[in-house]
Amino acid sequence: MKTQTDSRSGEAALVPTAVARTGHVRNPGMALDVAMFEGHHVNRAATERRTATLAGRRSVKKDHQAAWLVNAVRCVDLTTLSGDDTADRVKRLCAKARRPLAPHIEAGLGIAPGALHVGAVCVYPTMVPHAVKALEGSTIPVASVATGFPAGLMPLPLRLEEIRWAVAQGAGEIDIVINRELALTGNWQALYDEIAAMRAACGAAHMKAILATGELETLGTVYAASMVAMQAGADFIKTSTGKESVNATLPVSLVMVRALRDYGAITGQPIGFKPAGGMKQAKEALAWQILMKEELGRDWLNPDLFRFGASSMLGDIERQLEHHVTGRYAASSRHALA
Question: Which of 41, 64, 306, 324 has most Cβ atoms within 10 angstroms of its Cβ?
Fold first, then answer.
């Protein structure tokens, strides 16, 4: 696919070859500064109104919609986090990560074989060696959840050791979970200290801090926890584990993205964002990308600064792209992940 101008927005349509990866510098963190978030009020009604208008603010159709969906594929963290995960399942997932679209869809879109791949493969720590082996020779990083995922209710030394073990096995990214009790009780110093220790345990691996926003009760707490995680050195902040009753929502995402913007305005440091859980349809991939474009700009449409934790959504994206190429919809089961 070539870069095209969107006749409605006057902007270039997004395509894999047209959007360069940013290669941003790791977040060095900073000392805890509660003044950056204490007393920050979040108007829930205004937040919900803002996100409700996103779809209508930027209309993308046909070739332009296809280009946005292809870009979404680049930003997917293809994930399996099941109790019955096996080496064979991880191997199949990694094969899909290397070539997320069927060959005839690639050809119809003008994508060279193997030119498009997902942002990362995310697995449990014990599955990391299998993923590393299956992705050998590619540039796709292996991400591992850690720190007692999904609840995080393990002694801190054990959580830190789990991080170190996953990194030693070859994980290039670590998705940690924060201690929700510390956030809910406003014990920001203790939360900061724990996340900073996790960041140190990650070494050279990038760290994504999962806030489990569905369990944080208020949008003000979400904003504060986002700031603490970034101050403690998180390279990404992530909405959810995917295991909560409420996962990624646009209002929560807007609050976190505004925290990213505020942190960047003060420190000059770009931080990544990852919505995760509950997203299943291609139209949701469009909505979250529009949010990033509207609030943070084009740089946050790259996998270095934006990821989806939504593996099931990839199947619907592929289905929509097949319709774009062939004019026909395949059965949804055909594009389901094994």
Answer: 306
Q: Which of 128, 168, 129, 160 is nearest to 144 (CA)?
A: 128
Instruction: Indicate which residue of 96, 208, 235, 274 is catalytic.
Output: 274
Strand partners, 272: 236
Catalytic residue among 6, 77, 175, 235: 175
Neighbours of 102 (CB within 10 A): 16
CA atoms within 13 A on the CB side of 5: 2
CA 116 – CA 233 distance, rounded (Å) = 30
Q: Give the largest CA-CA distance in the chain.
A: 56
| Active-site entry in 235, 238, 304, 316 | 238
Give me the phi and psi of 158, to 5 degrees please: -70, -40
Q: Is 238 a catalytic residue?
A: yes
Contacts of 4 (CB under 8 A, 6+ apart): 12, 13, 63, 64, 67
Token pair of 169, please? 């096995």
In this structure, what token pair is assigned to residue 67? 């280009």
Do 248 and 278 touch, CB atoms closer than 8 A?
yes
- Please check whether residue 219 is in contact with residue 259, taking contact to mean a CB–CB distance below 8 angstroms: no
Q: Is 193 labeled as catalytic in the residue annotation?
A: no
**Domains of the chain (ranges, CATH numbers):** 34-335 (3.20.20.70)
Q: Does the active-site annotation cover 235?
A: no
Per-residue pLDDT reduced to its tens digit, 264-303: 999 999 999 999 998 999 999 999 999 999 999 999 999 9
Written as six digits, the tokens of 246 are 């409420």
- φ, ψ at 210 (rounded to 5°): -90, 120
Q: What is the pLDDT of residues 222-274, one digit of tens each?
A: 999 999 999 999 999 999 999 998 999 999 999 999 999 999 999 999 999 99
